[in-house]
Design a protein that fits this description.
By secondary structure, the protein is α/β, with parallel strands linked by helices. The protein folds into two domains: 1-362, Rossmann fold, CATH 3.40.50.1820; 374-448, Immunoglobulin-like, CATH 2.60.40. It has ten helices and 24 strands. The strands form eight sheets. A six-stranded parallel beta sheet has the order 7-2-8-9-12-17, with helices on both faces. A hairpin with a 5-residue loop joins strand 3 (21-24) and strand 4 (30-32). The longest helix is centred in the N-terminal third of the chain and has 20 residues, at 123-142. The termini are far apart.
């Protein structure tokens, strides 16, 4: 039996992560968008704009005045090779919120809004824009009869959670907000961004390689995703945090600015709103790194322990130090899929409707999936279930339009599954049990990319 429709009294704001907003140029031509019909076309359109998308040195928290602006949320599977992990998109979570369960108002004053933003720019800059957008929406909603006590409920995926926290702590947003739900947010950073910035874009991305590295290193936002914990392993043992001279390839001024960004958030004290944290677990996740021959080599281990995470954000970094261990909701799923999981959507249901929900911790039979993010056409993509034990699991592949590709493939006893070669495009590999009542599935988005085209 489906739940009864519920009228929503607050203003709900959905904020995507890095790469999750569509961008257009000054002539409204797509710069980063799925409107071209496929992920591959979107990447090539973006690649053609790289020179103009690179930000000027010393930009800080300002806008470059290049005419680029955000106009919407990426609905489907998206990734810019090398910058961040593939993300399944936001059509699913928006469809859920716009369904019959929630009685949102759209006209003339909506109380469900999205906040697309130029994800190249500083999170401080985008937090100021969020203050304008959300504050205006709440003011107009409160003017409706009976809504004077309404507040904001913010749902933020990945880096969007950092934008939201700066708005709440530094742009007077806390007084307006009832709850913030962060989903896979790197509150204490991610080694993924360190790998990108220090090593440059991985080989295999083809003609985008050099330009994309320069563009990535010009982004204040990507620096604000750097780890704030001691993530660098010393040759003689122990760990140290990032700092001047610790790694090659990092701009000292941008590194210091990113550290200052997090220091302000960490010094804010306990939040004056309820902070719910949806945290990915059990997925192999780079957590530390060591410098070898001028290049960073990442590791899933920290002090000889593998604490895992969502494949992109380590478990230890997925919540801020303040309030650690409270309102934490663990889901065994990959970073780019967390925002659409049933568990996360059920949590939103209870918060938005102001009803109590029973939250169950991650089932003990859950598992992790490891898989390279980019494959070449003609290669046979592989994935591994490191903790397979004696589980029986299958792998099904969907293309970016949701169509199943080929027949399911069994995971071998050694935990490996080898898929058939695939043409260029975005895909999602779902590892699931063929047995009723088995562990919940885990989905890994990936890209098949031909750099020579």
């Amino acid at each position: 039996m489906s739940a009864k429709p519920s009228a929503v009294r607050d203003v709900v704001v959905v904020i995507p992560g890095i790469m999750g907003s569509t961008l257009v140029d000054a002539e409204n031509r797509p710069v980063w968008s799925l409107s071209a019909g496929s992920l591959v076309n979107a990447i090539r359109t973006f690649g053609g704009s790289l020179k103009s998308l690179r930000l000027p040195e010393g930009l800080g928290d300002d806008h470059p005045g290049d005419g680029v602006r955000a106009v919407g949320l990426m609905p489907g599977l998206h990734v810019i090779p090398g910058i961040w992990s593939p993300v399944a998109g936001y059509a699913g979570i928006l469809k859920f919120l716009r369904g019959r369960r929630f009685q949102f108002v759209q006209d003339p004053v909506p109380n469900l809004i999205t906040f697309p933003y130029d994800w190249r720019l500083s999170n401080r800059h985008n937090a100021r824009l969020l203050a304008e957008r959300a504050g205006d929406a709440l003011t107009r909603w409160r003017a409706r009869p009976g809504m004077a006590d309404a507040k904001l409920v913010i749902v933020a995926h990945s880096m969007g959670g950092l934008v939201a926290r700066w708005f709440l702590e530094r742009e007077q947003g806390a007084e307006l907000t009832r709850a913030l739900i962060t989903i896979g947010t790197p509150h204490r950073g991610s080694v993924k961004s360190l790998d990108t910035l220090a090593n440059g874009i991985e080989a295999g991305v083809g003609p985008l390689k050099l330009s994309l590295t320069e563009m990535a290193r010009s982004m204040p936002s990507l620096h604000q995703l750097l780890p704030t914990y001691a993530c660098l392993r010393k040759p003689g043992g122990g760990r140290v945090p990032l700092g001047p001279g610790t790694t090659a390839g990092l701009d000292a001024a941008m590194l210091a600015d990113a550290a200052a960004f997090h220091a302000v958030l960490d010094a804010a004290g306990p939040p004056r709103y309820v902070l719910h944290k949806v945290v990915g677990i059990r997925q192999p996740t780079p957590t530390t790194a060591r410098l070898t021959g001028g290049r960073l080599v990442t590791s899933d281990a920290i002090d000889e322990q593998d604490q895992a995470g969502d494949g992109t954000v380590p478990r230890l970094a997925a919540e801020p130090a303040q309030g650690r261990g409270t309102e934490v909701h663990e889901v065994a799923q990959q970073h780019g899929e967390l925002q659409g999981t049933r568990s996360a959507l059920d949590l939103l249901d209870g918060i938005i409707t102001r009803e109590d929900v029973i939250w169950e911790d991650a089932a003990p039979e859950t598992f992790g999936v490891a898989m390279t993010e980019i494959w070449a056409p003609g290669a046979a993509p592989e994935l591994t279930v490191p903790d397979l034990a004696d589980r029986r699991l299958n792998v099904s592949v969907l293309d970016e339009h949701g169509t199943q590709v080929g027949a399911p493939v069994k995971v071998r006893p050694d935990g490996r599954a080898v898929l058939d070669p695939l043409p260029e495009g975005g895909y999602r590999a779902t590892v699931s049990s063929p047995v009723a009542g088995g562990p919940p599935p885990v989905t890994r988005p990936f890209l098949v990319w031909d750099p020579d085209r």
